[in-house]
Amino acid sequence: MSIDILSNMVITDFYNALYNRPCITKSKTIKHGPVWSIFIKQTGTTSYEYEDKKLISDKNCVLIIPPDICYKWDNIIPGDYSCITFGCNIEYNDIISVVCDNPQKILNKIRMLEHIKSSPDKLCKTKCIKETYELIIDIISSDQKKYATDLNKKRFDPVIEYIEKNYFLDLSNETLANLTRLSVSHFRKTFASLYGISPMHYVHKVRIEKAKTLLFSKQKITHIATNVGYQDIYDFSRAFKRVEGISPSKYRTIFGDGH
Fold first, then answer.
1. Which of 44, 143, 186, 196 could bridge across to 77 with cysteines, CB 3.0–4.6 Å?
2. Cα(first)–Cα(last) distance of the chain, in Å?
3. What CATH number was assigned to the domain covering residues 3-147?
4. Quick count: other Cβ atoms within 10 Å of Cβ 62?
């Protein structure tokens, strides 16, 4: 289900906000009430099963449940949850799951809503509706960021495939950047944001993984170094130790023919 439906919501009422509540019951089959709910776990993991679908809810996942859905939930790992309930103009019959890039921001918003809801302020419902809109905007933004990341990863799939097939060649940032038609600086920055390491560090990791397999054979370490893309045995040893924490010869002794 596309999360786009949330952008068309008109919130008609606000009912409740619960922050940091323990979930004690192990499992339960229920019919959801005549309200929309937004759930997020603070600790633990819960599964939701309905029709032929199964969703997992944890601290990084927001679930949006529309009215009158029948489902079974099961506490896989007991923990605490936060949620809000509200009314809106949309009819829908599917649970929406969104991976959240900043779950603490969502939790802080629910805590604020609980505080506003319990206040004697005559405008508390109006303020709660306003904050719920902002919460939904945060959820949509999280999904859009994930979508952008997925698009970037698709753009970088040829790079990963090229490295896997050509790790033994003399690879450079320039060679890899050309596959994406990005400048070298933009390529390096985007690659690091997607994979958590630089492009050349990724190349070294692929090479070392291939080398680890070859170290189970009788090949000389100098030949292995050449086969995985290192012309200098010392460069290979340094790269191997940087990734694995031990030298290639020590790795062979411990895990290879030394046993």
1. 44
2. 53
3. 2.60.120.280
4. 21
Domain 167-259 is classified in which CATH homologous superfamily?
Homeodomain-like (1.10.10.60)
Prediction pTM value: 0.60
pLDDT at 222 (0 to 100):
96
Q: What are phi and psi of 71, to 5 degrees?
A: -155, 165
Give the type of residue at 136: I
Each residue's pLDDT tens digit, 123-171: 999 999 999 999 998 888 877 666 656 677 788 999 999 999 999 999 9
- Bridge partners (DSSP) listed for residue 53: 50
Residues of the chain with CATH 2.60.120.280: 3-147
Residue type, 29: T
CB half-sphere exposure, 111, CA atoms < 13 A: 8
Nearest 5°: phi and psi at 74?
Answer: -140, 125
* DSSP run (H or E) holding 85: strand 80-88
Confidence check: pLDDT of 259 > 60: no
CATH 1.10.10.60 in the chain, residue ranges? 167-259
Encoded tokens for 151? 């698009």
Residue-wise pLDDT for 187-225, tens only, equals 999 999 888 899 999 999 999 999 998 998 999 999 999
| CA dist., res. 211 & res. 205, Å (int) | 10
Neighbours of 210 (CB within 10 A): 17
Phi-psi map region of 245: left, alpha, beta (phi>0 left; psi -120 to 50 alpha): left
Q: What is the mean pLDDT of residues 62-73?
A: 93
Q: Classify the phi-psi angles of 51: left when phi > 0, otherwise alpha if psi is within -120 to 50, otherwise beta.
A: left
